[in-house]
Amino acid sequence: MGDLYLTNATIVLENRVLSKGFIHIIGERIESVGEMEACPPISDLDKIYDCSDKQYVIPGMIDIHVHGAAGYDFMDGNTKAVEAIAFALTKEGVTSFLATTITNPVDYTSNAIGNLNSYSVHNNKPGVAELVGIHLEGPFINKEQKGAQPEESILPPNVVLFKEWQELSGNTIKIITYAPELDINFELLTELNKTEVIPSMGHTNATYDESIHAIHNGVSHATHLFNGMKGFHHREPGVVGAVLLRDDVYVEIIPDGIHFHSDLVKLIVKMKGLEKVLVITDGMRAKGLPDGNYDLGGQEVIVSDGSCLLVSTGSLAGSVVTMNNARLNLVEWLDLSIVEQVQVTSVNQAKRLEIFDRKGSIEAGKDADLVVLGSDGQIELTICRGKISYQRES
To answer: What is residue 153's three-state secondary structure?
Structure first.
């Protein structure tokens, strides 16, 4: 097999756009990037993908908060589910992801974590989106802000249980969403900081003062901003006020037009700057499928017109937005440049997970995780670690 070349491409680099460029891929890595005039000789054995009529080549997007897609959920606890989700994500331009759990009985969560570790060791191969870790959402959350998390399985923060799960995961839990106001003496937070797991405030009823106290002690992330947390009030700024005011906290946003008013993105960017904004989907198993009835964490969810609601309570239950549609929504709402779009869908995520040395931007030596956007802004081609994973039918 020869090498792979993308030619005549408009390539979005970390800080600029390169017109009439090439990307040379050998194996799983980007060998070189440059102007077409500097393109190495191409042999008959090499594969060429001409991007002359395409819009852009961007780095693969990274979804750090996704539960499922294509009829599967990571809580299904089997290899088939992870494989199906990893492939489905490539259709939306995602080349790396954190498999996200939901509050469930301890043995269910243990089974899912063990399965993800097994997949990571034995099945995490090029050609589909790469599992780069686990996002543990719950069970250490506040019942007052449970949202779509099953209340009967919610537990107080537990260092011993977290350590067991981290060992079971092969030390691949990267983010934990929890309620810091329930963490006595910040015992769990201390353990997370010691082991370099990102502590994220989510499904929390913390007051403003409690939130600031948690941030001072190491909380540096907020899960799906505005949702599953005490909102902003002029006499009690809550979690929202705390994380917007603190420059050292990253915020996840779900830009689907359902989880919060679109104009609030302008407020977020004014307060945080783009550097601390992380686009996520919070996708559930119905993503990519028709409207209908599905489940999330063993609870019935009805999906209609892009909205996912628990039948029992009417609470929002994840989303079906794709990363690419989330990106396009931000273009419409904020008129972001293509470099800025890449920043909030790839660059920031890679830096947050400390994998920017190999992912998040198009550079020689990095993983060949690439997405070609068609003239309509839709996903034309997705390459995961050097292998074409998805190609839109003409």
So the answer is: helix
Q: How many angstroms separate the most distant Cα atoms in the chain?
A: 69
Cis omega (within 30 of 0) on the bond before 157?
no
pLDDT digit string, tens, across residues 41-94: 999 999 999 999 999 999 999 999 999 999 999 999 999 999 999 999 999 999
Residue 270 CA: distances (Å) to CA of 14, 240, 274, 345: 21, 14, 8, 18
Q: What is the pLDDT of residues 300-342, one digit of tens each?
A: 999 999 999 999 999 999 999 999 999 999 999 999 999 999 9
Tell me the β-bridge partners of 69.
72
Active site residues: 282
**pTM of the full predicted structure?**
0.98
CA 343 to centroid of chain Cα atoms:
13
Q: Give the pLDDT score at 246.
A: 96
pLDDT recorded at residue 1: 72
Q: What is the mean pLDDT of residues 362-367?
A: 98
Q: How many residues does the chain have?
A: 394
Q: Which residues contact 363 (CB under 8 A, 6 or more apart)?
A: 13, 14, 30, 33
Whole-angstrom Cα distance, residue 14 to residue 126? Answer: 23
Element spanning 189, H or E:
helix 187-194
Residue extents of the structural domains in the chain: 4-58+361-391, 60-352
Q: Where are the alpha helices (DSSP H) in the chain?
A: 79-90, 106-122, 159-168, 187-194, 208-216, 238-245, 264-272, 323-334, 338-342, 348-352
Which residue has tokens 């959920």? Answer: 73
CATH class label, 4-58+361-391: mainly beta
d(CA 347, CA 351): 6
| HSE (side-chain half, CA atoms, 13 Å) at 386 | 21
Q: Looking at the domain covering 60-352, what would its CATH class be? A: alpha beta
